[in-house]
Design a protein that fits this description.
It contains 10 helices and 11 strands. By secondary structure, the chain is α+β, with helices and mostly antiparallel strands.
Length: 330
Amino acid sequence: MKNEMPTKSVTAWAPATIGNVAVGFDILGMAIEGVGDQIRLTPRRDRKIMIQSITGVLTSSELPLDAEKNTAGAALIALQEGEGLKVGFDVHIHKGIPLGSGMGGSAASAVAAVIAAQKWLSKKLSVKQKLFYALEGERVASGAAHPDNVAPCLMGGLVLASLKFGEPIVELPFPSMMGWMLVHPNIKVETKLARSILKPQIDLSMHVEQSSYLSCFLSGLYKNDLSLIQQGFQDILIEPQRAALIPNFERIKKQALALKGVLGFSISGSGPSLFSLTRNKLVAKKLAHQVQQEFLRNGIESQIYYGQGGSPGARIMPGSRKSHKKEPQG
């Protein structure tokens, strides 16, 4: 490891993510550009990990300042111990992702912390190592190390992620013209609650049907066939169990699927954010505004994000904290 003491702060940014992507519960995830978390690290000689500030859409009253209980802090502690890192950090967290939004906020903070801390290592970490340390942060937040948010946050794009694989991340093709959109209503759904309502067992016939949808979806990605992607974009296992957590979900979904060019519509992660894949960015933009208006009719404000093609993963940023637009145009 490096013996010299770096003096400058390093800031990393990590994007929000869509967990499950409807058809792949706990194994599929995709990054979305335009919203994310920033972590700024300043080195300390005493090896302590100190959460100094939490700003943005969340505050220290909503997230713990105790490093062992904080997703960014826990990831840094794991990396420090695993790599024998001789420095500690003052940690400044700027949250762009709301708590309980179904947008992978805990994963983003953990990943950004790991990406920033690499600047104090004398070797380059492998993807598997970075995933391992970031998952320790995710474990603190959700009680389990699920990679479907951490992996796309780290790598970008759309990924198949399972700790049961020898290589835990399989990067999937994402059709360059395919659009995506996400709408985050200003309500909160706790991940632990959303998992607790799920049935521990499923009928074999439903498992077979869902497996066929997943296979069709993956085939469509590799063949660049939007019709196959649309046929496979079905969640008969998890979405029906969580739909009641989101006001007027069934009505919103019905209206969304009636819009020409929409390939599918579902819940992002554990909700309440909703997402869609579309034939192009223009359809994604139109649908995002449509869903936003539908929430507004029920007195619920929301933020919208939309884009086209695969989104990049976590990265080091020049300078300090920057703001992110709520409605990206890129």
